[in-house]
Amino acid sequence: MKTVALYNLGCKVNSYEMEGMGQKLREKGYHIVPFEEKADIYVVNTCTVTNIADRKSRQILHRARQLNPDGVVVAVGCYVQTGMANIEKDDGIDLAIGNNHKKDIAELLERYLEERRETEGTPRGQRSKTLGGATVTDMGGSCEYEEMQLRQPTEHTRAYIKIQDGCNQFCSYCVIPYARGRVRSRRAEDILQEIRGLAATGFREVVLTGIHISSYGMDFGDSRATTAGIGGNHVSLIELAERIHEIPGLDRIRLGSLEPRIINRETAGRLAALPKVCPHFHLSLQSGCDATLKRMNRHYTTGEYYTCVEELRRFFHRPAITTDVIVGFPGETEEEFARTKAFLEQVNFYEMHVFKYSRRNGTAAASMPGQVPEAVKVKRSSELLELTRAQSRAFRAHYIGGEAEVLLEERREIEGRMLLTGHTGDYVKVAVEPAEGIMEENMLVTVPVRGFLTDEILI
What we know:
The protein has about 450 residues and is α/β, with parallel strands linked by helices. It has helices spanning about 10-25, 50-65, 80, 85-90, 105-120, 175-180, 190-200, 220-225, 235-245, 265-270, 290-295, 300-315, 335-345, 375-395, and strands spanning about 5-10, 30-35, 40-45, 70-75, 95, 160-165, 185, 205-210, 250-255, 280, 320-325, 350-355, 405-415, 415-425, 430, 445-450. About 35% of the residues lie in helices and about 20% in strands. A five-stranded parallel sheet has the order 2-1-3-4-5, with helices on both faces. It is globular, with a radius of gyration of 23 Å. The relative contact order is 0.08.
C-alpha cells in the first residue's frame, strides 16, 4: 500500500477539492499519512492568488522533496495553471495537475507511476510533468464543471459545498479568472444529492462556496436548467438555496462570499423567508472609495453597495455583514483612504478582512502607476484592523445578557477550562460549560450569554 501525504493551500474551494482528492485516493487503496511524515507520494494543492501564495506553494513543494528525495511530488491546482514555465524548470516537481483534472488524480497518478516504471533510469527532469499535456487544460477556453462529491468531510458539524467554479469579473488585481477559467455552475441535482447524503449522516450546517457564487446558474442554458431539475432558463443562487432549504435534517444554510449586486429587495426578502439561511452575509467590498473601485474594475459604487446592506438590514434583524478590504491599491491617496475608512465606519461591519495590496504579475494592477510604499500599506492596514476590532466587539456585545442559539462544534481547553465551543447563526463564537450527559458536539443549544471569555469568544 502506497502512502500519500496531502497539503492544502488557499481558499475553501481548494479545501473542498483537497478533501475530494483524498477521498479518491483512499478509494484506490492509498494510505493517507500526515504531511511531515516520509511518504511515497506528496500532493500539494497550490494557490496563486498573490505572488506570496506562489512562493508559499513552491516552498511546500520543495519541503516535500526534502522529506523524501525519492518520493513523487505532485503539484496541483492554481499555481500549475499560471506557473507552468517555472514548474517545467523545477526538478523538484514530478507531476503537475491543473484545475479541472483534480477528480482524476488517482488515475493520473497511476499512469505516471506506470510510465516511471517503464522509463526507469531516465533523469527526473526528462520525464513529462503533464503526461504529454494530459493533465493541464487551458482554462481560457470552454470547460465543463469538474464534479466531485464528498461523503464524509473532515469537519463534523459544518460541510463546505462547492457549487460553482470560475469567475468572469476580471478585477484588475486578480489572476484567478486565468487560473480557474470562466464561470461553470454545478448541476443543482448533484448539489442537492450531496447535501442530502451529508444531512443523513448528521451534518447540521452547509456552507455554499465557490470562486464567485453570485454567478451561479448564469451559464445554464435551457437544457442544463431542465437537467438540473429546476426548470426555466436559469437556475439562480436564490432558487438553489430555496431547494436546499427543503432538505430534512439540515438546520443551517450559510452563504459564502457574495457579489453585492446580487442583493436587492426581492432577493433579500426571499432569503429572509428561509429560516435555515444564516443571517451572516459576506459582501465583498475591497474599497470604500469610488475612484479606487473603478481602478479595481469593481462593478458597483459605494452608494450601490450601501443600498444592498440596507436591504439586508430591512429584512433581517441585526444581520452580520462582513467584508474584504484592500489597502494600498495603486494610486490610493490619503484622501481616498480616508473616504474608505469613513465608509467602513458608516456601514459598521461585524468583521473586515483587511489585506495589504500585493502586486500580482499578470494582472492589470501590477503595471499601474502610483504603487504605494509598503510602510504606507502597513500604517493603513493597522488603522483598519483597529477599526474592525472595535466594530466586531460591539457586534458581539449585543448578545450579553440575552440568549444565543449555538451549534456546538468542538470540545477544547480555554484558559484552563474544558469548554464546548460553537457558532451562532451570525457566526459569533460562543463557549459553553458542558452539562454532563446533556451537551455534546453537533448539538444545537440555546444558552444564556454572560460576557466575554476572550476578545473573540463569548460565554
